[in-house]
Design goal:
Blueprint lengths: L3 E2 L8 H22 L1 H9 L10 H29 L1 H18 L6 H15 L5 H9 L2 H34 L2 H22 L2 E2 L18 H8 L1 H30 L4 H29 L3 H17 L5 H14 L5 H8 L8 H30 L1 H19 L7 H8 L1
Parallel strand pairs: 1-2
Helix pairs in contact: 1-4, 1-6, 1-7, 1-8, 3-4, 3-5, 3-15, 4-5, 4-8, 6-7, 6-15, 7-8, 7-11, 7-14, 9-15, 10-11, 10-15, 10-16, 11-12, 11-13, 12-13, 12-16, 14-15, 15-16
Length: 418
């Protein structure tokens, strides 16, 4: 069985197969298997034998262990994929995530559940940086935004379904939270096997929309190139601030909305709107960027709208609040462009994208750790609405920082050089 193909091979049909499998990995392993945890926390917090009798602080530590593991491992896992290939590294990672995900259901206390969540996050750390890299191997700039939107936006579909149905329907139907985690672990295992069997690496040493700096970089070459590129550091700032704001706001708003008089079910429904519409935004906004031939202008407009929508959720009620969440989710799709730019960048390209994306993902999850803490401090000192406005302002700040990033779409880049 051939696991690697060259640039001269006809890739017109296979690239969509690879994209579909990658989207399935993202939707199930990251979207459903991770995001289902908060809706299972009520069961897990109950006394034995139903749950583990965990405190709110312990549940928070368990939720935070996944991004901590991802932030710790994603850079070396991106470097490894640059050197040894996406198929091998992501395949191993999905299997590790499947094991960690299933082991969550076997745990008997706080420490074992914490350890299994760390293992689960370590497995996902191979997936997050390297699915965008795979897209760069198989798609040119005319489709790069669309394909990236599909493979990264599929997270929102899996997450939305997990929040909507996981606690209310799936867990009761399967007999509780343990069996639910077993099933998701088994499903992840099947998808991991499918990945290993069906995915092929592709050399990127032939002329493409971007010319990679190195055809097959050494283990540390890719991270060195990433650290030397000023645009990478700008993207780090963009993702640290904006995605930190996203994680902070989405974690705080359900509680805030309940305090404003909404039921818990209604508050969760608004969060689901955000996640579902993000799927559409990730695909459509990225495709618009392909069509217009510009990354910077599309990102600027989308993230300014995004920030204003986030701010408005602190003050709106009724249908207007639902509309604000929908606008927020749709415009958030522009974040995909942060992962498109390195694939087109003349100093980077697909062959170095694993390390670059690992660095960007580390920024995302570090911001996701810091931002909720700072936001909650602001909420206690100045009120919840102030914290939400600050989070929205970080989106606008990120949009302005992105303006300093090099325009990488070939069409706009040529115009900028004239």
């Amino acid at each position: 069985m051939h696991t690697e193909t060259t640039a001269t091979e006809d890739k017109s049909s296979y690239r969509w197969i690879a994209l579909a499998i990658g989207a399935l990995v993202q939707a199930v392993v990251a979207g459903a298997a991770w995001t289902i945890m908060p809706v299972l926390f009520y069961e897990i917090s109950q006394l034995a034998p139903l749950g583990l009798g965990l405190s709110l602080v312990e549940l928070g530590a368990i939720w935070g262990m996944f991004p901590l593991a991802v932030a710790f491992f994603c850079i070396p896992m991106g470097m490894a994929a640059d050197r040894y290939g996406v198929r091998l590294i992501v395949g191993i990672g999905v299997l590790v995530a499947a094991a960690g995900g299933a082991l969550r259901g076997t745990t008997s206390g706080f420490a074992p559940l914490l350890a299994s969540m760390f293992l689960f996050g370590a497995g996902y750390s191979t997936i997050g940086p390297n699915l965008p890299k795979m897209v760069g191997m198989w798609f040119g700039s005319k489709e790069l935004g669309l394909a990236s939107g599909i493979i990264l936006g599929s997270y929102g579909l899996g997450a939305g379904l997990a929040i909507t149905f996981g606690g209310s329907y799936l867990s009761p139907a399967l007999g509780g939270w343990r069996n639910t985690l077993y099933v998701l672990g088994a499903l992840s295992l099947v998808i991991g096997i499918l990945w290993i069997v069906a995915i092929r690496d592709r050399k990127v040493d032939a002329p493409q929309a971007t010319k990679p700096t190195l055809a097959q970089p050494g283990l540390f070459d890719s991270i060195v190139a990433a650290l030397k590129c000023p645009d990478v550091w700008l993207l780090v700032v963009v993702l640290f601030t904006s995605q930190g704001a996203f994680i902070g706001a989405i974690g705080y708003l359900p509680m805030y909305l309940v305090e404003q008089g909404l039921t818990q079910a209604t508050a969760n429904a608004y969060v689901s709107i955000l996640l579902y519409v993000f799927v559409a935004g990730a695909i459509i906004v990225s495709a618009i960027s392909d069509r217009l031939g510009t990354r910077k202008r599309v990102f600027l407009v989308a993230f300014i709208i995004n920030g204003l929508a986030v701010m408005s959720t602190a003050f709106l009620t009724g249908p207007a609040l639902g509309l604000a969440f929908a606008i927020w989710g749709f415009s958030s799709g522009a974040v995909i462009l942060c992962y498109v730019v390195p694939l087109e960048h003349p100093s980077l390209g697909p062959s170095l994208a694993g390390a670059v994306n690992g660095l960007l993902m580390a920024a995302t999850f570090t911001g996701g750790f810091v931002s909720p803490i700072l936001g909650n401090v602001i909420a206690e000192a100045a009120g919840g609405s102030t914290a939400i406005v600050v989070w929205g302002g970080l989106y606008v700040f990120a949009a302005l920082v992105f303006l300093r990033v090099k325009e990488t779409h070939p069409k706009a880049a040529k115009l900028d050089q004239r």
